[in-house]
Task: structure prediction
Amino acid sequence: MASEITLLIERHKQGDAGAFDALAELIYPQLKLMAQRRTRAEGGLGATMLVNETFLKLLSGGDLNLEDRQQFFALAASIMRQVIVDEVRYVTAQKRSGSEQTYTDAKIADPAHEEAEFLLQVDQLLEHLERDDAQLARVFECRYFAGFTTAETSEALGISTRSVERLWASARERIAALMQDSTR
Result:
């Protein structure tokens, strides 16, 4: 499957209009499983919506200038983070505005939205971490925001699973330290 994904990405880059559709069909179930792991214990943004929004952002980004499957999944993790953070920002803005209750507002009581401020803070701290150590930030993004397993993160970033485990532990420690510093 990995080589098929890379082949479809290459065909898409060469102008094959149907290659992206074939890629989406091949990748969708895998992204859905990843999104389900991310959203399983949470309400609010469901796995289907997360994957659909990810694909919309992929499509709206113009040409996919990707080399292979690894870059695709790394980009997907980054986009999932954007989608989750955008949803949290939207919901918290709706709640603050006091406008009529919408479907999204009704979901505000879900655990994912009860911790909206926490998610936004994590996103801001991750931006800070990116400036210091991009690889730590990418590992955190894949594991935390995209719900990737260690093996999936390893594949997406092209590093060993042992490195992912080490970097994941380090990234969590750095984010926790940054969080403590920001509350002082």
Remarks:
- The chain has a mean pLDDT of 80.
- Residues 2-183 form one domain.
